[in-house]
């Protein structure tokens, strides 16, 4: 067997498989979006676990789940969820996250809010001491794009329109560079309060409950 360090794809598969131990047979779970979550969906389908249904955070995830024969239901069809599994673009030592690199932040935030337990699956490259190296995605109502961009610039950030990209909700994304996120809870509230903002990709008011991190030593927990 080779002793070569695992590459990023292998780390994603490793951490995705580790998340399976949180999934109960017969349960209904929330499922996030992204390449790490895709590994989780594939691992779930290949496992012996048979869930009742999933609530999905994006059209892409719904398609992948259905492709594996996993039933996808609307959040309105279920009271609440025990578990939400999703990736992240960054995590800090307090399990606060930046999400939305894939543009699914609003539905991700809704499903996370509906779930008792949020298990975040990441590889070591996503670890930071202070959030903000990754540009913060902000979903905006299209007519408010430049208004919100000016307000974000007023906070010291450099918003960049993710041109050509429309979210599953029919909205647009501003990726904000160089924001000061030393107090991410305050910034999350400040941005979410701007008229025209649907939500921002900070998951600080509702952080992950558990972060599983795939690294050279295997999977560690935070
Ligand atoms: C999508 C997200 C993803 O969780 C995030 O972008 C991480 O993706 P990946 O697992 O592909 O690195 O927030 O909106």
């Amino acid at each position: 067997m080779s002793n070569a360090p695992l590459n990023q794809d292998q780390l994603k598969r490793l951490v995705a498989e580790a998340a399976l131990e949180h999934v109960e047979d017969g349960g209904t779970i929330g499922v996030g979006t992204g390449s790490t979550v895709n590994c989780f969906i594939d691992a779930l389908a290949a496992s012996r676990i048979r869930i009742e249904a999933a609530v999905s955070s994006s059209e892409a995830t719904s398609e992948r789940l259905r492709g594996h024969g996993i039933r996808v239901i609307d959040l309105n069809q279920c009271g609440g969820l025990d578990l939400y599994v999703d990736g992240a673009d960054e995590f800090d030592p307090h399990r606060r996250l930046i999400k939305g690199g894939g543009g699914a932040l609003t539905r991700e935030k809704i499903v996370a809010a509906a779930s008792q337990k949020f298990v975040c699956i990441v590889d070591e490259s996503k670890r930071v001491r202070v959030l903000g190296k990754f540009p913060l995605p902000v979903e905006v109502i299209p007519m408010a794009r430049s208004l919100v961009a000016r307000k974000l610039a007023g906070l010291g950030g450099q918003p960049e329109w993710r041109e050509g990209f429309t979210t599953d909700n029919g909205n647009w994304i501003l990726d904000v560079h160089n924001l000061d996120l030393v107090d991410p809870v305050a910034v999350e509230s400040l941005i979410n309060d701007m008229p025209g903002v649907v939500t921002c990709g900070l998951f600080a008011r509702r952080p992950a409950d558990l972060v599983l991190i795939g690294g050279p030593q295997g999977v560690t927990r935070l």
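Residues 55 and 75 are 6 Å apart (CA to CA). The chain has two domains: 8-128+206-221, 136-201.
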